[in-house]
User: Fold this.
Amino acid sequence: MGEAMDALSSGPRTHDQLLELAREEFDLQWETAAPVRDRTGWLAVTGMVDLFDHQVHLTEAGRRVLAAIELGKPDRDQTDTVVQLAPTPGVIARLVEQLDQSGLRERADGANLYIPGIAANGGVLDALRVLTEAAIPSISDADFVRSVQSNFPKAQTVATARTAKDTLKALGLIQRTSSESWTATPAALAWVQSGEPLDLARTVHSAIAFFGEVLGELDQAVRPTTGTLTERSSLYLPNRGKPLSRSTVNTRLNLLDACGLVTRLSQTTYRTTALGRSFKESLPCFQPNDAAGRAPSDGAAEIHHNDSPSGTTHQVVSLGSHIAAVLEDAARDSANPKRLEKAVVVALGYLGMPGQHVGGSGGVDGHVRFGVGADSRILAIEAKSSATGPVRDQPLFGLSEHRVRVGAHIHLLVGPGFERRMLKEADDDPAIAVIDTGLMAEVVRRQEQTPLTLTQLAPLVEPALKAAQRGDALRRYWEAQDMRSRLEYALVDILNAEAEDPLEEGGWLDLTSIRRELRTRGYRVDEDTVVEALEFLTSSRIGVLQRSEKRYRCTASVHTTGQRIKALGYQWTAATELHQQTRSGDEAAHT
Assistant:
């Protein structure tokens, strides 16, 4: 507002000229001059500008107000700025020097990172410093657990404290001095002494994969979301073969943010800073085979034929990953809005909400059904794409009439983020659920590895939740699913160990003994949850445990258990294909 008046103090300008100024000088990526007209209209009503001859003129009243207000400009993305980096301590410099392509490949995956404390405002660095200093000169396992619990109120379980300790080891900050004690590494000592965040960042980059490399991923013309980063992380993990979890990627981003190497633009997007670019240029980074990481842009999963005589086909991009990639790409394709409308319908259909695309003016973009039978609901879709960031100044009036036409009571407003005023208006409407395409893409990707039921997916489309709350609600379900998988693994492992013990006959354990062993491994779960997991593993479809009254024993190895659970997915796929073929045949015969 005031900055527009300041621009007019040197002479009148057209709305298009003010729009160009907003884009170039203030990084306001508006697609039309509507936001400019809103401001000049308000200024005209208050008498601070006058509109005539197709230009905006500053009045004397406007000049008086301008003289009394403070102006400002946002920090610019200075892509050409080179920052001079501080000298690196010798012990850390030697770690970096050893990172040839072989050394980069040998880094740990860093797949289970957890840093206690607050992520924002440098809290990550404070937490790492406290824990590192606790290991100077050395610390026992038990004392480390107590140190975590005493310093971080939200990390009170033994399992959480141990995960924090494992994280420090993975980041190259502590190392073992015996089977029961730890000490800070030479690189960690150098960082603690210098207090320089870049020394910590260099140490971490030398220890784990996909850390400094994240800076290169973010420094693209089209910045990836955290969901895209999660998917692409597999390219940088040659020893792992599958992507990192979203939480582990977020831990990396929080640490990079705390070191001043990235800046957060929204809930799911970050930008590499000038310091981050200079820092990345100083590092050797792993160079992946990028061909496998890009999803195709059309409507089908990409298929490559190998050179074998049989002509076997290999699907290199999973269906969920492809749908998510198309969704994210369509969200930025403002020149073709129907792409996003269709992509949203496809994505929701993949999540178990079938529907159809409608499109056209004066109605809904599409609609889907949530649930089955009498309890199902129709959800209307309003999709907004934007090539330049959050969607801005799009009218929401008329949506209620559109819902009535398709029998919907809820509208899903989907787009790559929304500017603050528009977001507040939509969030305050009890019939509108605002969904960021980045979050929707993440849900689609994770549905293959950590599938949620339709009930668990309800937070994605629940209008009572604010847009910023959806991700947290869904992540609690993902964490619960991950915990359940770890619990099932632990149960099979415990009963396998009992079966292999030469002093035990039969390998039977009762529920009390099983729960006691789980507690020694850091699992604090109630009896009903343990019994539910045991019953699942004893079911005829899995059949890797046997039950006799309230005692259990294992009849298969951990590896075999994993094979059987995975086979259920293949069986369902085969059954689905057979059903579809049979139904197609019946329809053809009827015709």
In short: The chain has four domains: 2-67, 90-281, 320-465, 479-564. The first strand starts at residue 49 and ends at 52. The mean pLDDT is 85. The domain at 320-465 is CATH 3.40.91.30 (Restriction Endonuclease).
